[in-house]
Structures are given as structure tokens and as C-alpha cells.
């Protein structure tokens, strides 16, 4: 039997070019938006199986899409700050990650999901370890996610483990949780995966018909070391070893040359831009305007909570829209509607998700966020899209729907036992800092 829900709100941004500042109602059938109609819902003749959610004091926007992160790193939030990437990873993060347990991944992912849902993110991307536990947390939470087992190729054992774990993870979780989970492969980076291992992973992605996500050209040091060791930039190397023969989502791409960008455009490499993490780790500022000028598909990401240090996509949207103006000394750089589009539908496209995700249009999944229309950030209301991109924040999120399911209701997570999550993550923190 078809489940039918009507969601009526006081206004909506359907996508970056369609803004409605009057009452509108969405008809949602089996998790998909089947109609969007301006005006109040007339309830005469409603069948008993139709649920009507009336939220006149809410503004609907598409759920935000976080295109890069390491969810369970919420456990390491604040455990290593004010360090450059390589020192941060080698001296602080990797030793702590050695102490992670399956349980820790499950509860750390729950903490991330809790934080992301409350800040309006409905889809996130993850590359981490012991990922069955992350997938379980996603399935139970109702969230949508693009998950990968993060793999490194330091020796024969890590290489073969990476391949078999990735293969099993695809088999067990791809398109599971009512289709909300998408699995990709996750080679960590060219400095942790040798060239022939990247070739092997690309072949596996081709065989399994799944995309790849990878960190590329994050720091100047990474690029210099790659030039020293392989006489190629990380982007040229990835292309050379066949990685771009399959769909790739490349995270960071901060230090890329014009030739790199040409390769990326020619091979349709998607990009996850993580402005906050890149600033905090002192990595630099990615050439976003050059990427967009080449029609690259760029989404926004937070990266992990240990390098950001939160998972708030409103902050990334605002930062993307302001950072590049300052960097280019050009107030027209990255206008609000482009930042909004990168946080929504372009993000979904960057992650190779179904067409329509990231927009509130008929045929799309009902991944929807309702903002408090009475928030000071939405007054006096000159330009709704500007208010959302430049003024709103996580505090304005009141309701969240994923695939039509109400997962945050009046500011309260419906699917997360928040007291238990707080208890478990504190227990883990005490364990690793003992
Ligand atoms: C092999 S699982 C993923 C691995 O990535 C590490 N990580 C977290 N943030 C970053 C980043 O910005 N660049 C490179 N690697 C990063 C994380 O700690 C895991 O070990
Ligand atoms: Zn990362």
C-alpha cells in the first residue's frame, strides 16, 4: 500500500533558482515527492491513510549533502588541534585510531548522525574503518549515506585486507537500508596507496560498478612528495594509474595546477570542497572559481569532526560563499545561490547519487529540512535564499525528513537515543585518554 504524507509549510526553496515565499504543500508518496503545490492543502476527501503535517511557521529547503567526512572521528573532536595535516595524522590521530573498537565506530557514527541531522544534513559521505558498524548506525538512524571502507596499502597484508573488506562491504551494504546506503571504494590517498594498488582498486570499482572516493592534493607537501617520488602531481598520477577510468569523488584538491584541473574536467572527476578543514589544518584554499569555470561538479564537505571541528554544513555553505570573495577580492565570486546549490544538488551529483536528490521537485526523494520561519535570521525577509546561505545556521533547523520519514521533529531527533550516545562516547573518550 502506498504511504502518503502531505507536508504543508509557509514557504520553500525548491532549488537554487525556485524560491516560494507563500504557503506551499508537498505530496509525498512512498518517500518520493509526487507533487508540489502552491497554497494550503485542502483536506476534504483525505483518505484515512494520508498523514497531514501542517507546519505553517516553517520554511522548507532540500536536505544538505555533506560530500566528505569521517563520521566516527566525532570521537576525536578536540583531541588534536592547531597542527598541520601530516603531524596531526601521524602524531595524534593514527595512534588514537589504533584504539578504536567496533563499538566505538558505532557510537561515534551515531554521534555524527545526531549532529548532522540536527544541523540539516540528510546525506553524508564517509571513509573510515570497521564500516559495518557505521552502516548499522546509518540504517537505524534513517539517514542517507555514501560509505566506504578506507584502505591503505603499506604492505601485502593491508592491501589484501583492504580489497577483501571493500568487496564484502559492497556485497553486504550497497543499496541497503531501503536504498539509503550507497557504497563506494575508499583508497585513502596516493601517499598511503602505492600506484599499482590504486590500479587494483580502480579495477575492483569497475568490476563492482561502484565509484571511488579518495583524498587528493590536500597539502603542498603531498604534491611536492608526489613530484619527488613519481615525477607527477597526485592528480596526474591518479589519471596515469587508471583511477579516473571509473567515477571518482576527489576530496580537497587544494594544490592543483591548471593542467590538473584540465585532467579533472576531461575525466569528469567530482570534487568535495572542505573549506573549514583546509583552513584549520593550514592546508590552503582550493581554487573553487577555477573549478567551476571548468564546469567541474563540486560539492561541500566538513571532513571529520577532528579537523573542523563540527559537522555543520550551514557553516561550509557560508564559508564557501565568503572565503572565495575575500581570496579573489571579488564580491561577485561564489554567489549565495551557487553556494546553496553546492550544499544541495551539486553535492548529490558530486557523490553520484540519483538525479533529483538535493532538490524539492516532483520525482525527487523527500529529503527535506524545515527551518523556523520566526527565527531572527529569516527577518525581515528581503531574500530568502540569501538568508539561508548567509544568515541561517544549525539552530534554525526544526524538522528533518529523509525519504519522507520524519527523523527530527520540532528540534528533537526521533531515531537517536541521545542520552545513550552521550554516555557511550564519554566512556570511549575516558578509555583512550587513560
Ligand atoms: C583509512 S580511513 C580514513 C583515514 O583518513 C584520515 N583522515 C581524516 N581527515 C583526513 C584528511 O583531511 N586528510 C587525510 N586523511 C584524513 C582518518 O584519520 C583515517 O585514518
Ligand atoms: Zn578526509
Automatic annotation (TrEMBL):
Q: Which UniProt keywords apply?
A: Hydrolase, Metal-binding, Zinc
| Requisite cofactors | Zn(2+)
Query: Where along this sequence does the record place binding of substrate?
Result: 97, 188, 218, 303
Binding positions for Zn(2+) per the UniProt entry: 68, 70, 215, 303
Give the species this sequence originates from: Alicyclobacillus dauci
- Its recorded name reads 5-methylthioadenosine/S-adenosylhomocysteine deaminase
Q: What is its EC number?
A: 3.5.4.28, 3.5.4.31
Family note = Belongs to the metallo-dependent hydrolases superfamily. MTA/SAH deaminase family.
Q: Which domain of life is it from?
A: Bacteria
Boundaries of each Amidohydrolase-related domain copy?
59-405
What binding details are noted for the cofactor?
Binds 1 zinc ion per subunit.
Q: List membrane-spanning regions.
A: none
Under catalytic activity, the entry for this protein gives: S-adenosyl-L-homocysteine + H2O + H(+) = S-inosyl-L-homocysteine + NH4(+); S-methyl-5'-thioadenosine + H2O + H(+) = S-methyl-5'-thioinosine + NH4(+)
Tell me yes or no: is Metal-binding among this UniProt entry's keywords.
yes
- Biological role: Catalyzes the deamination of 5-methylthioadenosine and S-adenosyl-L-homocysteine into 5-methylthioinosine and S-inosyl-L-homocysteine, respectively. Is also able to deaminate adenosine.
Amino acid at each position: 500500500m502506498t504511504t502518503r504524507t502531505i507536508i504543508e509549510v509557509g514557504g520553500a526553496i525548491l532549488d537554487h533558482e525556485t524560491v516560494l515565499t507563500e504557503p506551499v504543500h508537498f505530496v509525498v508518496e512512498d518517500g518520493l515527492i509526487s507533487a508540489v503545490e502552491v497554497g494550503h492543502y485542502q483536506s476534504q476527501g483525505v483518505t484515512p491513510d494520508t498523514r497531514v503535517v501542517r507546519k505553517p511557521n516553517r520554511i522548507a529547503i532540500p536536505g544538505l549533502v555533506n560530500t566528505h567526512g569521517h563520521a566516527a572521528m566525532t570521537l576525536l573532536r578536540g583531541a588534536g588541534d592547531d597542527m598541520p595535516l601530516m603531524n596531526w595524522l601521524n602524531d595524534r590521530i593514527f595512534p588514537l585510531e589504533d584504539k578504536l573498537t567496533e563499538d566505538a565506530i558505532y557510537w561515534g557514527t551515531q554521534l555524527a548522525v545526531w549532529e548532522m541531522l540536527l544541523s540539516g544534513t540528510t546525506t553524508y559521505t564517509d571513509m573510515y574503518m570497521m564500516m559495518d558498524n557505521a552502516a548499522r548506525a546509518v540504517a537505524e538512524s534513517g539517514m542517507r549515506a555514501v560509505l566506504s571502507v578506507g584502505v591503505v596499502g603499506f604492505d601485502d597484508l593491508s592491501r589484501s585486507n583492504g580489497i577483501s573488506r571493500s568487496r564484502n562491504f559492497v556485497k553486504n551494504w550497497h543499496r541497503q537500508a531501503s536504498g539509503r546506503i550507497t557504497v563506494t571504494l575508499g583508497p585513502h590517498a596516493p601517499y598511503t596507496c602505492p600506484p599499482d594498488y590504486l590500479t587494483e582498486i580502480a579495477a575492483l570499482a569497475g568490476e563492482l560498478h561502484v565509484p571511488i572516493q579518495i583524498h587528493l592534493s590536500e597539502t603542498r607537501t603531498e604534491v611536492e612528495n608526489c613530484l619527488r617520488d613519481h615525477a607527477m602531481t597526485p592528480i596526474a598520477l591518479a589519471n596515469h594509474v587508471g583511477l579516473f577510468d571509473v567515477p571518482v569523488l576527489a576530496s580537497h584538491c587544494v594544490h592543483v595546477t591548471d593542467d590538473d584541473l584540465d585532467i579533472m574536467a576531461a575525466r569528469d572527476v567530482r570534487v568535495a570542497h572542505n573549506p573549514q578543514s583546509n583552513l584549520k589544518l593550514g592546508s590552503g584554499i582550493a581554487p573553487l572559481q577555477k573549478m567551476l569555470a571548468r564546469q567541474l561538479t563540486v560539492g561541500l564537505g566538513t571532513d571529520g569532526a577532528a579537523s573542523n571541528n563540527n559537522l555543520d554544513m550551514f557553516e561550509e555553505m557560508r564559508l564557501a560563499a565568503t572565503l572565495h570573495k575575500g581570496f579573489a577580492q571579488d564580491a561577485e565570486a561564489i554567489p549565495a545561490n551557487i553556494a546553496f546549490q553546492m550544499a544541495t544538488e551539486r553535492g548529490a551529483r558530486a557523490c553520484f547519487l540519483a538525479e533529483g536528490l538535493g532538490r524539492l521537485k516532483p520525482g525527487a526523494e523527500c529529503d527535506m529540512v524545515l527551518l523556523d520561519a520566526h527565527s531572527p535570521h529569516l527577518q525581515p525577509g528581503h531574500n530568502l535564499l540569501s538568508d539561508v546561505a548567509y544568515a541561517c545556521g544549525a539552530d534554525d533547523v526544526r524538522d528533518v525528513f529523509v525519504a519522507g520519514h520524519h527523523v527530527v521533529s520540532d528540534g528533537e531527533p526521533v531515531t537517536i537515543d541521545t542520552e545513550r550516545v552521550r554516555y557511550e562516547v564519554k566512556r570511549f573518550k575516558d578509555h583512550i585518554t587513560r
